[in-house]
TrEMBL record:
It is found in: Cell membrane. This is ABC transporter permease. Its main location: membrane. Residues 70-262 form the MacB-like periplasmic core domain. It is a multi-pass membrane protein. Pfam families: FtsX, MacB_PCD. It comes from Pseudoxanthomonas gei. Keywords: Cell membrane, Membrane, Transmembrane, Transmembrane helix.
Length: 436
């Protein structure tokens, strides 16, 4: 009894390890496995017998369609939820990664990880403008934009409940530093006037941000004079003149300075110049690196959560597949016994049941992937970013996620079909024929 228990435990451990390897196997590894199995099926007598037995099983699927649909629907649910969860992380990460570039850099107080805990004194900005590596405009002035980030509460469009929005104060140079930001409605704000422009994502996420609307922020009335689109995290922001914002919220220092740099060589010059100047205890990173780091934490949490939820659902789908396939084997006992009696050995029978289950799993995976893509791809949502403000982004159902979902589906089919397949191969021929 103890030895049997040990063998069962070892089998489960080996199966779990094999599944883990399968899930993380790259596409060329999966292709190699598929080519190897196909070659075995076509080139060997046992393989051809397995194919013949599989055709018999597939031909009887219409008579067992109700039970077989349990496998397909269960696996489709697992794949759909898994892909949807991972698509959320993929979309959030892609939005923040698109926000930055290697041609711009953000300067923060030394040791600061985000704008919210950074302070840059006003008298440091002219010194920053003299540093090497910063691009110059046509008139020879350094391209830099000191900026402030103020968190404000705005009612959401869906529920009317207050949510954090990022109200950014920028200089005129911000438009040149971020050429992807384009006005699609109205005009730019005027300097020294309580006017603002809003990202298209923020306009859709919050109430009262239509062109010409007035809203109260910082106990003052502001007018929406423009709407912009950027295709990145700035779509979730409100922009105004930095000095107007500083006056409204009594901010006597800046939080960051965004500058244009001459590519990677210019960025290296900038970081070296910052390190060499004892008056500037500041750090710089490319905006691409900055926004990528901002997305890392939440993306990791979403991926882990999605994988855990997918794994829990996968266990349920495995048990559903086991029950269905055990019932199918029991219902086909006479058919399987007849095949065994006319020369089909254990291996072809095992492979036939496995291939049938894997086919149903593949159909479930395709269905789940199709549902996830049709429902969630491009679906807009908002979540709290690293600056404690809402970031509007879209789910991104990529081919890589769909491929991962298919591998999960086939893994579930593998486990769900293995033990019923072994049961079919061990079915006593004479007993099965008499019982039928």
């Amino acid at each position: 009894m103890k030895n049997q228990w040990m063998r069962n435990a070892l089998s489960i451990v080996l199966l779990a390890v094999g599944l883990g390897v399968w899930i993380f196997l790259p596409w060329y590894g999966v292709l190699a496995v598929a080519v190897g199995v196909a070659a075995w099926l076509l080139a060997t007598r046992t393989g051809r017998l397995a194919l013949a037995a599989t055709r018999i099983g597939i031909a009887s699927l219409p008579q067992r369609w109700g039970a077989s649909s349990v496998i397909i629907v269960g696996i489709a649910g697992v794949v759909g939820v898994l892909v949807a969860m991972l698509a959320m992380g993929e979309g959030f990460s892609a939005t923040l990664k698109q926000t930055g570039s290697d041609d711009t850099a953000i300067i923060l107080r030394g040791g600061s990880q985000a704008e919210t805990n950074s302070v840059i004194m006003r008298d440091q900005v002219p010194l920053i403008g003299t540093l090497a590596g910063i691009r110059k405009d046509a008139s020879g002035k350094p391209i830099l934009s000191p900026e402030l980030s103020q968190i404000v509460n705005l009612p959401t469009a869906s529920t009317g409940e207050d949510a954090n929005a990022q109200f950014r104060g920028v200089s005129e140079a911000a438009w040149a530093i971020r050429p992807q930001v384009k006005l699609i409605e109205g005009r730019k704000f005027n300097v020294g006037v309580r006017e603002l422009v809003v990202g298209q994502g923020a306009k859709n996420q919050y109430r009262g941000l239509d062109l010409g609307k007035k809203l109260k922020l910082g106990n003052q009335e502001w007018t929406v004079v423009g709407v912009f689109a950027s295709g990145d995290a700035h779509d979730s922001e409100l922009w105004t003149d930095i000095e107007t914002l500083a006056s409204a919220y009594d901010r006597r220092a800046y939080q960051s300075v965004t500058v244009g740099v001459d590519g990677k060589p210019g960025f290296k010059q900038l970081t070296a110049a910052l390190a060499a100047d004892p008056r500037l205890k500041l750090d710089a990173m490319t905006t691409r690196d900055y926004y990528t780091k901002q997305s890392t934490g939440l993306t990791t949490i979403i991926k882990v959560l999605g994988t855990v939820i997918g794994a829990i659902m996968a266990i349920g789908a495995v048990f559903g597949a086991l029950n269905t396939m055990y019932a199918a084997v029991a219902g086909r006992a006479r058919e399987i016994a007849t095949m065994r009696a006319i020369g089909f050995r254990g291996t072809p029978v095992v492979m036939a049941v496995m291939l049938e289950t894997m086919l149903l799993a593949l159909l479930g995976g395709l269905l789940g992937g199709l549902l996830a893509w049709s429902i969630f791809n491009g679906y807009s949502v908002a979540t709290l970013g690293a600056n404690f403000s809402q970031v509007v982004f879209q789910f991104k159902v990529s081919p890589e996620l769909l491929w991962s979902g298919l591998k999960w589906a086939l893994g579930i089919g593998l486990v769900g079909g293995l033990f019923p397949a072994l049961r079919a191969a061990q079915l006593p021929v004479t007993a099965a024929l008499r019982a039928s």
